Amino acid sequence: MSEPSPKIALEIKNLHKSFGEKKVHTGVSFELYEGEILGLFGGSGTGKSVILRSIIGLEKPDAGEILFESRNIVRLSERKLIPVRTKIAYVFQNGALFDSLTVEENLSYPLREHTKLSDEEIHERVNQMLELIDMKGSNDLLPAELSGGMQKRAGLARATIIQPQIILFDEPTAGLDPVNTKRLLDNIQKLKTKGITGIFVTHDIPSAFEIADRIAILYNGTIYVIETVEKMKLSKDPLVQSFISGSVGPDH
């Protein structure tokens, strides 16, 4: 018996994007399956983060479609994007916490905005999340009192606390030492066991191999290849090998 086809959570179709004279995307297409994490590689300036930002409406593609729940979300108004952004969460590179709010207030914010949970239920959900990311008891700390690694983990917790369908990770391990990188990856693995779906944009090849099910390489404005981690590791393609070895420079 053949395996049933995986269910598509999100589809990117023929995305084009230019900034002035610079063409960043010239026909990017790929599918994200439910329950998988897709690693997205590419040199600096290839528009990896632009894809993530386009998915949640922070950038508008010049052409192409982004299909989520059977509709093209590219041309939605800001008002119509609000419910989409509760289902597709963005984990920013620096954690993007509100400086003046405590950890508990930061994590509570999306729950107060988008759910009808009581104060008691919100407090309980926050505590569950802090336990999950190994930050139990940090409720009353301000972001300035957290280490860089803790800020990123708190940002991850805030993005996922309303249980989105898809999580977009934008260079989540950038700037972290090996110990904090491992902690963050462990947290993402815990979320993965709960069935999360995500896109993991990174230059950190070992982390992507640890966390991703498939890898896509963005090169010259399009998806050059998309394959399972195992097939990527075995690939004899010179460009794939250069990415894996880390020899592809920022100019590519």
Model description:
This protein has 252 residues and is of the alpha/beta class. The protein has one domain (8-245): Rossmann fold (3-Layer(aba) Sandwich). 37% of the residues lie in helices and 25% in strands. Strands 6-7-8-3-9-10 form a six-stranded mixed beta sheet, with helices on both faces. A four-stranded antiparallel beta sheet has the order 2-1-4-5, with no helix packed on it. A hairpin with a 2-residue loop joins strand 1 and strand 2 (22-33).
Chain-wise SSE layout:
Elements: E1 8-19, E2 22-33, E3 37-41, H1 48-55, E4 63-68, E5 71-72, H2 78-87, E6 88-91, H3 103-114, H4 119-132, H5 148-160, E7 166-170, H6 178-193, E8 197-201, H7 205-211, E9 214-219, E10 222-228, H8 229-234, H9 238-245
Parallel strand pairs: 3-8, 3-9, 6-7, 7-8
Antiparallel strand pairs: 1-2, 1-4, 4-5, 9-10
Structural class: alpha/beta
> What general outline do the C-alpha atoms trace?
globular
The CATH architecture can be given as 3-Layer(aba) Sandwich
CATH topology, by name, is Rossmann fold
Rounded Rg:
18 Å
What is the strand content? 25-35%
Termini separation? 43 Å
Mean pLDDT over the full residue set: 90
CATH C-level: Alpha Beta
Order of strands across the biggest sheet? 6-7-8-3-9-10
Low-confidence stretches: none
Residues in helix, %: 25-40%
Q: How many helices?
A: 9
What does the main sheet amount to? Answer: 6 strands, mixed
What is the CATH homologous superfamily assignment? P-loop containing nucleotide triphosphate hydrolases
